[in-house]
Amino acid sequence: MKLKSNIATSDNGFIFNPATGDSFSGNDMAAQLLAAMKSGKTETEIKQDILNRFEVSENQLNRDWDDWLQQLKEANLLEN
Question: Which structural domain, as residue segments, surrounds residue 70?
Fold first, then answer.
């Protein structure tokens, strides 16, 4: 799970893929997740941070995480 290095992101959740010209808008949580991914944090570190900061069960987090990664894959934003 690694965001492509050429993907541009902003603090407000805007995502731009210069290779395709595609852009996406995300919410505050998306912006936080993208920043953590770009900083090199591991999946485990990111999930633990979410569990510490938000009231969410580990099962729900894992389901949401899988959905998040699927969306990034479909948008061609992750390294292969």
Answer: 8-74
Q: Which residues make Cβ contacts (< 8 Å) with residue 68, sequence separation at least 6?
A: 33
d(CA 1, CA 78): 7
In this prediction, residue 56 carries a pLDDT of 93
Beta bridge mates, 78: 3
2-31 pLDDT, tens per residue?
Answer: 889 899 998 888 899 999 999 999 888 888
Domain total of the chain:
1
Work out the number of other CB atoms within 10 angstroms of the CB of residue 27. Answer: 10
| CA proximity to 11, closest of 25, 52, 42, 45 | 25
Report pTM. 0.82
Residue 61 lies in a domain: yes
- Rounded Cα gap, residues 49 and 8, in angstroms: 23
